[in-house]
Amino acid sequence: MTTQLNPYLNFRGEARDAMTFYHSVFGGQLDVMTFGDMGGMGVPDSEAGQVMHSALTVSDSVNIFGSDVPSHMEGDFPNGRISLSGDDADTLRGWFDGLAAGGTVNVPLDKAPWGDWFGDLTDRFGVSWMVNIAGGEG
Questions:
Q1: How far, in Å, CA of 114 to CA of 54, rounded?
Q2: 3-state secondary structure of 52
Q3: What per-residue confidence (pLDDT) applies to 3?
Q4: CATH 3.30.450.20 for domain 8-68
Q5: DSSP state at residue 38
Q6: Torsion angles phi and psi, residue 117, rounded to 5
Q7: Where is each Glyoxalase/fosfomycin resistance/dioxygenase domain found (predicted)?
């Protein structure tokens, strides 16, 4: 049996832009449904074009979901941090560089004290990412 962790990101009117950006970084298949596609779902007409659910399927083990939080839902919806790890250095380095475009690198992707390569960034949408490349040359 396979277990997957699928991060689900929340935005306020930026989900389509964010998910399109992630699609440009990770590739894969992006599917987007709007509130309007689902009959409105109780949101104002001005929000019918916002994203009710989106799914970026990168591979069998990498999926990212996202949606816009309707204006009638109060509160802060922080996205936490997403960790990408493994031993495919070229892929992980490419993802780190792509996500860093227009964002802030908090910890440059470099050799870490535990022997792996590690980097930390906040992308241009405010989502925090950690990248860990197992051992080797990173």
A1: 36
A2: strand
A3: 61
A4: no
A5: G
A6: -100, 135
A7: 8-131
The Cα–Cα gap between 2 and 15 comes to 28
Q: 81-133 architecture in CATH? A: Roll (3.10)
Helix (H, G, I), strand (E, B) or coil at 10: strand
Specify which residues 118 forms β-bridges with. 110, 132
**132, containing H or E segment:** strand 128-133
Give the span between the Cα atoms of 127 and 85, in whole angstroms: 17
Going residue by residue through the chain (138 aa), what tens digit of pLDDT does each one get? Answer: 356 678 999 999 999 999 999 999 999 999 999 999 988 778 899 999 999 999 999 998 899 999 999 888 877 666 767 889 889 999 999 999 999 999 999 999 999 988 999 999 999 998 889 899 998 665
Distance CA 56, CA 26 (A): 9
Question: β-strand 128-133 against 81-86: which pairing, if any?
Answer: parallel
pLDDT of the residue at 1: 37
SS3 53: strand
The conformation of residue 42, written as its DSSP 8-state character, comes to T
pLDDT of 2 reads 56
Contact by Cβ (8 Å): 92, 36: no
The residue ranges of every structural domain in the chain are: 8-68, 81-133
